[in-house]
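HUMAN: Now follow token order:
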Amino acid sequence: MSGGEKQKRKIIIRYNPALKKLASDLRKNGTLSEVLLWKCLQSGQIQGYDFHRQKPIGNYIVDFFCPELLLAIEIDGCSHGYKDVEDEIRQKEIEKLGIRFLRFTDSNVKDDCWAVVEEIKAWIKRHL
């Protein structure tokens, strides 16, 4: 493999099948910040990596997930302020699978989506 090619990871992430319908519903009813970031993440627009939206992992659903990078991206809205402990437990459970997280606030994405994209690109560069 040449230095410029990225290595594809083959990993199977198991999930609770009961979450498929909920994930589908969440994709259909995304928040404005989720829709904005999805327009930037979809179709390999970030350094050729594919991201999935509202991806079930274990007994949870993450906002965005890149299986090649084992990277979950979460957008924390105002409702997350009341779920800090719950989010921390959830994140730790998912991290046990080797998945890493990037978190952004709803206002970060709405106010400057391109800065968020640049931060994601920088994270990818640092972790390859």
The first strand starts at residue 52 and ends at 57.
